Amino acid sequence: MNNNKSLLSKIVKYVLILLFVVGGVFGIYSYMNNNSNEPQVRVG
Q1: First-to-last CA distance in the chain?
Q2: Rounded distance, CA 42 to CA 23, Å?
Q3: What b/e sequence results for 11-35 when a residue is b if at least 16 CB atoms lie within 10 Å of its CB, and e otherwise?
Q4: Nearest-angstrom CA–CA distance, 28 and 34
Q5: What confidence tens digit (pLDDT) does each residue in 3-29 have?
Q6: Which end of the chain has fewer CB atoms < 10 Å from its terminal CB, N or C?
Q7: How far is CA 3 from CA 11, 13, 26, in A?
Q8: What is the DSSP string of the chain?
């Protein structure tokens, strides 16, 4: 039971880190796009 709880804790921690990294990258990408004066916008 203790091992299972530890595994769940690790999974939650990794998910939070992944969300933080993805959110940060998306935020920077959006920030750079908004500050760019180029007319074309890349999607995907």
Answers
A1: 43
A2: 19
A3: eeeeeeeeeeeeeeeeeeeeeeeee
A4: 10
A5: 789 999 999 999 999 999 999 999 998
A6: C
A7: 12, 15, 34
A8: -HHHHHHHHHHHHHHHHHHHHHHHHHHHHHHHHHH---S-----
Which residue shows structure tokens 């940060």?
A: 24
Write down how long the chain is: 44
Burial (Cβ within 10 Å: 0-12, 13-18, ≥19) of residue 8: exposed
Residue type, 20: F
